[in-house]
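Extended Data, record VOC family protein
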Amino acid sequence: MTPTPITPCLWFDDQLEEAAAFYTSVFPDSSVGHLTRYPEGGPGAPGTVMAGEFTLRGTTFRAINGGPELAGFHESVSFSVTCADQAEVDHYWEALSADGGETRVCGWLRDRFGLSWQIVPRRFFELAADPDPARAAAATGAMLQMTRIVVADLESAADEVGSSRSAG
């Protein structure tokens, strides 16, 4: 049996084209795919986008301009971006939180379209899985106090526990 792909579908009020252009400008190796426009006599203004697709770093998203009744996103659904290093964290954090976005704790933010993102450095996952439970707890505790996650601060928190244990 061939696996059937699962593709997220996002419901916008009327900002699909703007959102697709924005997201594809933020993520490398991304593109806007086909956009279906309303025809003359359709329910929407002729020529405006009704539905479409865009691809962000290999993941395809479908989206519709479905109107205001169900538009709007909730933090119970978010997209997590695992970043290679602090520079990548900073890039996505700044780009996605700009122009009306809102930052949250623990590496979460909402972009200007209301979509929630988790911007997390790979190093956090490594530290949280440290075989020394005290180091893992210290890194996790530090992350819980952060808004934008800072790798150096995670490492400092883990190292402080490690050095105080070896000094004792």
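Summary. The CA atoms of residues 10 and 63 lie 4 Å apart.
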